[in-house]
Amino acid sequence: MHAICVYCGSSRGTLPQHADAAAGLARALAARGTTLVYGGGRVGLMGVAADAALAAGARVVGVIPRLLLEREVGHDGLSELHVVETMHERKRMMADFADGFVALPGGLGTLEELFEVWTWRQLGYHNKPLGLLNVEGYFDPLLDFLAQGHEQGFMRADALATLVVDADPQRLLARMAAAQPVRDDPWWQMRQRI
């Protein structure tokens, strides 16, 4: 995986572990020689990840709509910053640049971006790995909801199985690269029941 698209909040969240995880993922990407692709902002977890990746010597590519350039305070120290006109262009360009996707804690935008590329994978538009960095159990309620969606007949087991979930950035990247589950992962165990 030469480039990973990271989806995360333009806020830092309330727990210091959120920022620690964003920086840890960025350093893990740098250690692998992997480019960080993200939304181009310098605030919140986006800024933390970009700054940590740059400090560790990684190439960092941002993509930001002109409308958000000032609101999200576009990062001016990146390897590349692409300014586009629409959110659709932003998401498509980020996806095209990436060999895989990782979502960290974030809000509506983070969830929407994750679900869009996950849907694209389910529909066969790409076969890139998807990861969820589950910091301090942030995504546990979402994972429970997804399991319920399967139990009630709305989500296929094979689609759910494409999401790699881990709390450790280095292990998450390794699992995504290998596409192998860790058997003590509760998400993996839940998938075995469905």
List the helices and strands and how they pair.
Elements: E1 3-7, H1 16-31, E2 35-38, H2 44-55, E3 60-65, H3 66-71, E4 80-84, H4 87-97, E5 100-103, H5 108-123, E6 130-133, H6 140-151, H7 157-160, E7 163-166, H8 169-178, H9 186-193
Parallel strand pairs: 1-2, 1-5, 2-3, 3-4, 5-6, 6-7
Helix pairs in contact: 1-2
Outline the structure in words:
By secondary structure, the chain is α/β, with parallel strands linked by helices. The chain contains nine helices and seven strands, in the order E-H-E-H-E-H-E-H-E-H-E-H-H-E-H-H. A seven-stranded parallel β-sheet has the order 4-3-2-1-5-6-7, sandwiched between helices.
Structure characteristics:
194 residues, alpha/beta, Rossmann fold, seven-stranded parallel sheet, disordered C terminus
What do the pLDDT scores average to? 91
Any idea of the CATH class? Alpha Beta
Secondary structure: number of strands: 7
User: Any idea how many domains?
Assistant: 1
Low-pLDDT runs of 5+ residues are 180-188, 190-194
Short description:
The protein is α/β, with parallel strands linked by helices. The protein is 49% helix and 16% strand.
